[in-house]
Amino acid sequence: MRGAHMWSYGPIPTAITAVAYSFDGSKVYIGAGDKIVMVNASTGQYDRAIVTPHGQITSIAFSRDGTRFATGGTDNYVIVWTSKGKPLFKYPHGSSIQKLAFAPDSGNLLSVAVDDFGYYQSTSDSQTVSKTRLPSKGTTCAFSNYSDLFAVACADGEILVRDGDGDKVRTYKGEGPAAALVFMMPPGSASGVGSPTSTPYTSQPLSRSMSHSMSQAGLAKGSDTTSELLIAANVGMSMALYEPHLGDGALSIERDTLVSIPLQMQVYDRYLLVTGVDGRVHLYTHRGHHLITVCNVTGHQAAMEASLAEQGAEGVEAAKSMKERENYLYGLDVCPTRPEFVISSSSGAVVCFSGEFKVVHALYETYYAQRTSLTAVRVRNMATGHRLTIDTELTEYISKVAVYKGLVAVLSGRKVKVFSLTERGSRNSPPALADPLGATALKGKRPPPIDTTDHALVHRLVAELDAASLGSDCNLICLTAEHLVVCSGSQVRCIPTVISKTA
């Protein structure tokens, strides 16, 4: 996965800290100073703007059904709007708004300010707001995917967990202030993605009709919620996992795992997108293991500066102002309908990227290997039906796979790992189908059943190479009995694999 640049907006004279997709993914809402600027999510073309009394907009959030959105700003106020931009409700805090989050299954809104947090509850009869004083500066917040819990993070490292009614559940003492929080179903759960009612790319919930369909299938509300994780990206560059439904302590804390001080975090498929002060967007596993740098916004900023410099004196001045500002990525949101995301920065720009996971696979005769997650490969013998998943030896991002006879090569992070494949109970090659072309089936007869008991497919690591020898521009690897063939542009090289003879 590499982020492909789609469009850019700006720059404006002030930092943009708030950016959000509309619920249907058709528009991007940008907090540009005191204005909500709406642009086409596919092209970045300006649509319209709404002037607010906020001063500087610091956060934007959308409700699950798309009928309303909320904004918060440095004027200490939260405003709830209709989807058309008409104000519905307004309430104050005692200090600047830090973060907003809607409950997935209702119009309830959580707002975190520097000194307190508010819980806005909306029904057909009334609208109420309760306030709670925080022990230290509020930093961020998040709702669980089932709306039965929410979490508020403080600068002293505490994370307050409350239930859907706002009552205290537990308090975690973290490693330091959390810059971002997300609730996420662990990979391998019934949902298979970050949320029980989400698209494959984001934890934002689906429409009512789609959520109902998933509920009928047992994947939505009513299924097991206790496995849901609360993940905190801490300013100290650590990532902590909690089980808010089960325990008071951290499930795990991965220290020094983040490559930059984090600013924002969002669920993306089974992984986490994290922005930071380094001007880059990184992809992590739910346990904080760094997989890949998805995109570098600094390079796109340089292109924007060059473009501005060609637009006369005003453009030159804008380019100079942009260059002098740090490129901290304060805003991040994932499109609910497409594999895309937008980021906003302290330089006053918004950039949209597409980030689709490509198919990584290889085929040799009856063996087919495919990357099933970013750190796992499934191998199948199509003649016998035997299959296996290689994952325990692979913890880094998998970018290339190659197959040759009973060997599989995997380019995983900084290593190329070669595995041997054998059929348990057979010293020879895997047994072939008695009727590989299916002639019997064509005559209307069922072919004999395949015995998968005595010849299970197993693997063993037999060689390991330093990926640096492949070069940074490697675009294809192929495997032979004794060599790894590396294709880099128009050049082809053969690297000995030195496969263990005991394989």
Can you describe this structure?
The protein has four helices and 39 strands. Helices cover 8% and strands 46% of the residues. Mean pLDDT is 82; it is low at 192-222, 427-443 and 450-455. It has two domains: 4-354, Methylamine Dehydrogenase, Chain H (7 Propeller), CATH 2.130.10.10; 361-496, Lipocalin (Beta Barrel). The protein is globular. With 503 residues, it is mainly beta. A four-stranded antiparallel beta sheet has the order 1-28-27-26, with helices on one face. Strands 2-3-4-5 form a four-stranded antiparallel beta sheet, with no helix packed on it. The chain has a four-stranded antiparallel beta sheet with strand order 6-7-8-9, with no helix packed on it. Keywords: Cell projection, Cilium, Repeat, WD repeat. Residues 361-425 form the IFT122 second beta-propeller domain. It is found in: Cell projection, Cilium. WD repeats lie at residues 50-81. This is Intraflagellar transport protein 122 homolog.
